[in-house]
Amino acid sequence: MFQVEEELKKLPPKPGVYIMRDAEDVILYVGKAINLHNRVRSYFRDNIGRGPAIDKMVSLIARFEYIVTDSELEALVLENNLIKEHSPKYNTLLKDDKTYPYIKVTVGEEYPRILFSRQMKKDKSKYFGPYTSAAAVKDTIELLNKLFLLRTCNRSLPRDIGLDRPCLNYHIKQCLAPCQGYLSKEQYRSQVAGALEFLNGNYAPILKDLDDKMRQAAERLEFEEAAKYRDLYNSVKQVSQKQKITDSDGEDKDVIAMYQDEAEAVVQVFFVRDGKLIGREHYYMTNVLGKKKPQILGDFVKQFYAGTPFIPRELMLQYGIEDAELIERWLSERRGARTYLKVPKIGYKEKLVELAAQNAKLVLSQDRERLKREEGRTIGAVKEIADLLGIERVDRMEAFDISNISGFANVGSMVVYEKGKPKRSDYRKFKIRTVSGPDDYACMKEVLTRRFLHGMEESRELEEKELDQEYGSFTRFPDLLLMDGGRGQVNIALAVLKELGIDIPVCGMVKDDNHRTRGLYYQNVELPIDTRSEGFKLITRIQDEAHRFAIEYHRSLRSKAQVQSSLDQIPGVGPARRKALMRTFKSIEEIRDASVETLAQVPEIPPHIAEQIYHFFHAN
After folding, report:
1. How is residue 426 annotated by DSSP?
2. Is there a domain that residue 12 lies in?
3. Strands 408-418 and 396-405, how do they pair?
4. What predicted TM-score, i.e. pTM, was given to this entire model?
5. Per-residue pLDDT tens for 56-102?
6. What is the DSSP string of 189-226?
7. Is residue 213 a part of any domain in this protein?
8. What CA–CA distance (Å, rounded) separates 294 from 72?
């Protein structure tokens, strides 16, 4: 039996981390202390104005444990790790767990590449970032590869030089093929140096070079070549203009400010790299009730920079935070160089922090409005449907649809909506096994039977294993079944459910002469529905989604069958080569339009087979 008073006496006067647990042994709170004896005992003294949230937590503490560390810095690191692992209810938590993209230049390789990375490792590569937009990073890498004609392959060079044919990028003039030894290592490194200049923000030489090449090509009347350089010039110009100068000192810094209301807090971060604002991001902090802004900001700094691989030279903060010197020392150790925490009071930097605070307030306000609208589209719409049908709750809805063309490749779809939102992880496709020909009713009967039988079998397995959690998406039965058709589809569903001994409300979507939903068919009655209501809009979205999901599945089966049947007629193309072609090209049309050279780029297709494939499609 854990005796609090006795255990308090045993606490050592040393730095460490303490963990508060409730009667169910769930972790309530994780904290650090420079003196465990004094800090933990303070929780069990008479209330000294610590706030209702902490009072509530203390009332729930059944036992505590602690871990002694050698220093307060070690305790800080351990506290962060435990909070991230357990997400205790009474700790202020960083809600977002984002990883930011970097541009990685593998300068440690003899023939470097430019890669997308979400981790900044201590290797021989150079990293640029972090950036807030993965799409922008990918666009920049694509632009750099076009500008400097760098390799994108994974070949080990110079070991593999000349061992294989050059890839497609060489043939379309987007790589200089160092894999063939077509240029020296020094020449290739010169191209990489140009890319590094670009990433460091030196755009002028590249713009001048592209402008010169564009004009020279135009003078030679090579207008297609000139257009290519013009497009590259415009792309570089666009990237250069996006770099907004924010500070003249050229340092890396993060500007951090927040806005808090009664229940939530948002922290806004401006990322400044080499004196340029490269992006901004906001983060929600939970469990903030009764906590002061400096404490929330301090919790954010500790949790955010424990997880990000890049530490800037300076953090510009809205408020002074507790343990600032300790956190500064911790960040400096992580960075490998001095990091400063500053709270600007006057001038340009103070205005930048204020701008971040205003953005945080705006985010919280806009998100409130968005969530209110979203709630109307989802939970509000679900309530409308439940009220219309007289059902207590319809948290989970499942809709089914059948797709075929003249009975070819009958397929069924199942889409799931929970609380008015699609739950795509529970979507399922069905390839019809027992029905040939265009019989939608028979197909629907098979789909529903398989769906509910599967769910019943999974539930039995759970009971046998004495497990409480969901075994699969089929174990959770819907509160409402939505059928794409009217009375006929509803009767099929009701017959299947009756046969299986399952009681679930079934509702059909009745259409008008223009195939638009005009009402709901429920319990042998057609119920009119306001076409301007959120409930009607939700039903339409579910209907469209079930239809889309079924058609996409049917289309993919048709495409595979078409490719397979065509390729089977080509001498020399067996199952392995057919699979390679289907993996490389999206459709039979793409294979038909490909040149001999492009076909030969598929590793499994030798040149003479590539010629046979080409001639098969172009014989006439």
Report:
1. G
2. yes
3. antiparallel
4. 0.49
5. 888 899 999 998 888 888 888 889 888 888 889 889 888 765 566 78
6. HHHHHHHHHHHTT--HHHHHHHHHHHHHHHHTT-HHHH
7. no
8. 20
